[in-house]
Every structure is written in C-alpha cells, then in structure tokens.
Design a protein that fits this description.
By secondary structure, the chain is of the alpha+beta class. It is built from 23 helices and 26 strands. A hairpin with a 2-residue loop joins β15 and β16.
C-alpha cells in the first residue's frame, strides 16, 4: 500500500494541507489486520450523507456506486455509522442475504468489516475493510480491538480538527504506482525479459486499474495488437473483441477475491484464446494461450435439456423493471414474473404468496401441472414451520438446492410434494413491509451461486413494489365496484304493463366509479323511471349520485308531479353545496293510458321505437342541469307509449367518445334499435351497449335503461 495513484475521483482532487491524516489512519488499520483493501467516509455537514474521502488497495471505480451513501442506505458503512457498531459480512453468501444491492454490483468472494468513526457525542464518518475470499476469517478479539481503537483515535483527531476549524478534506487514494520504464523496468533485468520472450505463450501485466504495463511479443502476436498500442491502456479497451463487460468482470473478480480466474474468448474470425489471470495486491499477471480444446469443440450451444440456471443479466433487470411499471393487477405481476424472471433463471414454476388474517394465500401461480398441489399451500398459518412462512416472517431469502435439503429443514414438506427438485423462496418487502413471498421451483437439483442469489434478492424488491401497488389497485377496484353496486339498484322491480332492462358499464379510467345512475320506482298509481349523470368519476360523484337517487325516490313516493320532482331535486343539490352538476331525465309512466310524462334537466334526449319499427329522437323541452339555478323550472312533455313501444334512456357515455360526431353516434344507435327492437329486452340491451362494452377504453361511464310497453 505505497505510492499515490494518478487516477482519482473528483472529490479527491481537493487534497487537505498538512499530514495525510485519513490515509495514514486507514493504512494503519489495514496493516494491523492484513486487510486487502479499504476506504474511509466522512459525514457531511447535515449528518445525512457519508462521502468517500480516501480508498486504498482497489481502484475507486470499484466503489463508484457508493461515493456518497445516505445514512439510511442498506449498505454496511451506513449501518455501522447509524447504529454505532462494527458490521461484519462473512463472505459473498452473507453479503447476498444481508446487502443484496452491494452483492449485485460486486458478486465476488470477499469479507468486509465496517466500523463507525465516532466519539460519544458525534459520528464523524465510517471505515470499511475487505479481505479476499480465500483468506477471510471471523475477526478475532485482537483485530476487533485494533480496529475499534484506531477508529476512536481518528474520531478524537477529527473532533480536535473541528474545534480548531481545520477542515479535513478528501485525500489521494493509496494505490501502488504503475510501473514505468518498459520491459527491463518491469521485469527487473534484461535476462528476465529474454526468458519471457522465449515462452510459448503470451504474458501481460496489469496494474490495479487494469492498465497494461507490460506485454510480451507473444501476447501481442496472439491478440493481434502491437505492443505500443497496448501499453497504458486497459485490455478490454485496446482489443475490440475483448470489449465485453464479461471480460472486465473477470478482472474485478480476480482483484476482489485474490484468486486466479480465467476465461476464453474468440479472436475473429475463429481463433479461441485462453486468458488466465493471477492477482496480487500490486496488480495482475495474465497468461494468454491458444485454447485448442475449445476450438475443436466449436461453438456448440448447450443441449436444450440443460436445466442449469442462467444468471439474470442487466437487460433482464431493465426489462422487468420497465414491464412491472405497467403491471396493474396482481395477475399482471404474476404473469410478468413468469415471462421475464423464471425463464432467465431456469425456473420451471412459480408461486406468489400473500398474507391475510395471519395466513398465507396463493395470489397466483404458473407452471404447476396439477392445481390441486398449489391449493395445499393456500391458507397455511404464518406460524407454521414452512419455508414460505419463514421467508415472509424473517425477510430473509431461502435457497434449497435439493429436495433432501428442503425436507431436512422443513419435514412438513413431506406431506405436500410439488414434483420439483430445488426452490428459491424470496421475501417480497416493499416500503419496509412484507407483502408476500415469491417461490421459484426448479425441475432439477440447482446450485445457487452467490451472484445469482444477490440478483434474485434484488429482483424480489422490484416484484414487491409492483405487487404492493397491484394489491392496492385490486382493493381499490373491489371497493369501487362494491360502492357502485350498493348505490345502483340490485334489480329492477316488476311494473304493471312495463318491461324493464338496464346496463351499467364503468369507465376504464380513474376509479372505475362514477355518477351515472338509473332507477325504477313502482307505486300504487303510475310508476316512475329516472336516469341521470353526476359530473365527475370519483367517490364524491358516486356519493352525490346516491343522494339524488334517494331524493327522487322520496319525492316520487310523496306524489310530486314530474316537474316538481325535478325542481325539488335541483334545490336539494344546490343546498348540499357540492359544486357538482347533474343531468337527469324523469318519466312518469301510465301504460294503462298509453302515455308517459317526461321532464328533462340537460340530459341527452331519449329514443322511442314505435310498434311499427320506426325510431325517433324525442327532442323534449327541458331546463338546465341540476345544481346551477335554484329558481329553474322544468317543463314536461307527454309522449305516446302504445303497447310494443320501446323507450331507450341512456347517459352520454353511450354516444360520446373522442373523435366521433354525436349526431352520427345517435343515428347508429337508432339504427341498432330499429333492427333489434323486437328482441327480448335483455338481448336488446346487450346489442345497444355492445360497441361500448367491447371498447378497450371508455372515457365515461355508460348507463342504459330500456322500457317496453305491454298490453295491460
């Protein structure tokens, strides 16, 4: 850990004057516990963000996503500072369980310790240190005491600097300086360079940033790029056919784990080369040779029956994230997970569980050939010793690589086999609240490497947010339909001499609830019918609609004439002060005399089909919308209603839509009425709302009330 890198983050360009306080403290901590790399954060003035001040042993790019960390972020340094304790992460499996966001970006085997830099009264920052996967171990008491004491000493110095108004600024990162001087300077002697030149394979040396500091002639020949163009560049940037994130990832994996890694790549048009990376704390050595065995195999695709999991790539994540923003219902979420996630990880079946009233309930499933198997998991108590309940209660994902492993931990699964051989139980946590569990099932025993566990755990967060939103939508949808059903008549009462039928279609935007209403009021004398439309598509409009419908019933029952019913309802609406208007059409029916008396308040005109099949639009006299003018009057019109006549009352949603002329829409409605008017009334109602009912989007609600006169 000597020397200063020439590649620093922007924040580190402001070097503090005086002794490098932070760098020396960090180096002392790392030396005392043989840490591989580390970093130090300082708390900002608002004490809400940790800002990286110096890093050692690794390029700053490795920690780029965490240059600034919110104090509440789910990362080790934030937990250490917020909770004032040492945080120990024991390798990649532990990281994927506890900090999946970190594990997704750095899915490599390494251990990490994070500690607060704090006095009794103030937190000044935090420190993290890492160990390679091949060397990490639980910190012993001596190491814990060394790190804790070093952080306490640093906190006292930072406190003193603050008291003396001496700002402590970010410092240059501690990295090994890149070698210079060509082959002899790199290898130490000319004879050593000659030895390398005689080797049958190529050798390349990389610094910690991945830049080439030496390349042998054989390496240059194998990869097809002159040595002069290689030196000082990154291998994947200098060689076009190595410009793939997969190859850069192998370099990161070697540095983080301090374990040798390898990969094969094809040099166009068809020469396969093998790259073996040997890391140390000063950089990497890369051996390049021809991969003859791979060349002879050719580019064979894996057999179609290969059940091995395929790690979800960033394209899958972005695709799923975009798709989930469009998911509306719970079943939409289940379908998207089945189409986007399950195939990407090799899962053959999935089940989404939610909790209600202390029990697990199956919200949706795909891939299970026998639905009765899924039913066994529905209604299981959350207190039951099952993996689904445990994942939901604990918030910790569970991965079972075989049936033996699952049944050893959960013997209860012997009684509910599902025919699969491996499982991933992913808790769905949204806004800190558990909303369900996603179960992925595999046809064959399945290994779950740490990187895949981390990706699946992070994906579960996206799924959880979409599921939470879908559950709220479904609840709202059910509430809206329940409220609408309660405000509209559940059925129409029988009337003497009059057949009735009605339809209601909610709008497809907003809450699926609106102010359209209809009603039929029987009585000892003439019956009454009403249809109306309160402005708006929300709970307020629906509630006002219920009040208007109740008022019309009351005024009809006490015997008010049609004109007076409209005037009374208008005054009521104004007295309520709702600032909403309503259209209305009220009819007093007298089939014995073959007459109907109508009063209209700004409502679309009804259609009348005469017994001979002719249809006319009844252009009735009327008054303004209800709720505008308290002194308004509503003239009435008497209409012939001979036996066989059909009256069609409707709201404007049936004939009004963007881009459609209302006169043309009325003409088409009249034509359908003329052609189908002899059908039973329920069939006729379906015909008249057919076009609107099949529309993928309805801006407005649709209410329809049909009245057919019969012989008394």
């Amino acid at each position: 850990m000597v020397g200063v890198s020439d590649e620093q983050a922007p924040a580190a360009r402001r070097v503090s004057a005086g002794a490098p306080l932070l760098s020396l403290a960090l180096a002392t901590m790392m030396d005392g516990v043989n840490a591989h790399s580390g970093g130090m954060y300082l708390m900002d003035a608002d004490e809400s963000v940790l800002e990286m001040a110096v890093m050692a042993g690794m390029p700053r790019a490795f920690s780029a996503p965490w240059e600034r960390v919110g104090i509440g972020a789910p990362v080790p340094v934030a937990d250490a500072a917020r909770e004032r304790r040492l945080v120990w992460v024991d390798g990649d499996d532990d990281m994927s369980r506890r900090y999946p966001r970190v594990a997704v970006v750095l899915p490599y085997p390494f251990a990490l310790a994070a500690l607060p830099v704090a006095t009794e009264t103030k937190v000044y920052g935090a420190v993290f240190l890492t160990w390679p996967g091949s060397q990490h171990h639980e910190l012993n008491d001596r190491e814990r005491e060394h790190l804790t004491a070093a952080c306490e000493r640093l906190a006292v110095r930072l406190e003193r600097a603050a008291a003396e108004s001496r700002p402590v600024l970010p410092e240059p990162d501690l990295l090994v300086a890149p070698p210079t001087g060509g082959v002899a300077g790199t290898l130490g002697t000319v004879e050593a360079a000659r030895m390398v030149a005689r080797l049958p394979y190529g050798l390349v040396s990389l610094d910690l940033h991945g830049r080439i500091t030496f390349a042998s002639a054989a390496a240059s020949e194998l990869i097809g790029v002159p040595t002069g163009r290689l030196l000082g560049t990154q291998l994947w940037a200098a060689v076009p056919w190595l410009n793939d994130p997969v190859y850069e990832d192998r370099y990161r994996a070697a540095l983080m784990s301090q374990q040798s890694t390898s990969f094969v790549a094809v040099r166009p048009p068809g020469d396969w080369l093998s790259f073996r990376l040997y890391p140390s704390t000063t950089g990497l050595s890369v051996r390049i040779s021809r991969a003859r065995a791979v060349s002879e195999m050719g580019r064979k695709a894996p057999p179609s029956g290969d059940g091995s999991s395929r790690l979800v790539t960033i394209s899958h994540v972005l695709s799923l994230a975009g798709a989930l923003t469009e998911a509306v219902t719970v079943q939409d979420v289940v379908q998207l997970v089945a189409e986007e996630v399950a195939p990407a990880v090799g899962s053959r079946a999935l089940m989404v569980l939610g909790s209600r009233a202390g029990r697990l309930h199956v919200l949706g499933h795909r891939g299970y050939p026998d639905p009765h198997i899924v039913e066994r998991f529905d209604g299981i108590p959350l207190s039951a010793p099952t993996p689904g309940a445990h994942a939901l209660n604990s918030g910790v994902p569970a991965f079972f690589e075989s049936q033996t492993e699952l049944e050893r931990l959960y013997p209860i699964r012997h009684a509910a086999p599902d025919g699969y051989a491996a499982w991933a139980y992913l808790p769905l946590i949204a806004s800190g609240r558990p909303v369900g569990t996603c179960v992925l099932a595999y046809a064959e025993p399945q290994a779950f490497p740490a990187d895949e566990r981390a990706v699946l755990t992070s994906l579960s967060g996206l799924i959880a947010l979409a599921l939470e939103r879908a559950l709220l939508y479904d609840a709202k949808h059910q509430l809206a339909h329940g409220l609408q059903a309660a405000l509209l008549p559940p059925s129409l009462p029988p009337l003497s001499g009059i057949e009735t039928a009605a339809r209601y279609l909610p709008g497809t935007r907003g809450m699926d609830i609106g102010g359209d209403f209809y009603d039929v009021v029987p009585g000892d004398g003439p019956a009454a019918a009403v249809i109306g439309d309160v402005q708006g598509h929300n709970v307020t409009a629906a509630g006002l609609m219920g009040q208007i419908r109740t008022a019309v019933r009351a005024y009809t029952t006490v015997g008010q004439a049609p004109a007076e019913v409209m005037r009374s309802t208008n005054r009521l609406l104004i007295d309520l002060g709702a600032d909403l208007f309503a259209s209305c059409l009220y009819l007093r029916l007298d089939p014995g005399r073959g007459r109907a008396v109508m009063a209209r308040a700004g409502h679309p005109p009804p259609l009348l089909r005469r017994p001979d099949g002719r249809v006319r639009v009844l252009d009735l006299a009327g008054g303004p919308l209800l709720g505008i003018d308290g002194s308004a009057t509503y003239p009435t019109t008497e209409v012939d209603l001979a036996p066989g006549s059909v009256l069609v009352l409707y709201t404007d949603g049936l004939v009004e839509s963007p881009g459609v002329d209302i006169e043309e829409a009325l003409a088409q409605l009249g034509q359908r009425l003329a052609e189908a008017g002899e059908r039973p009334l329920d069939e006729l109602a379906d015909v008249l709302v057919g076009a609107g009912g099949r529309a993928p989007e309805r801006v407005d609600d649709v209410a329809l009330l049909l009245l057919r006169a019969r012989e008394v």
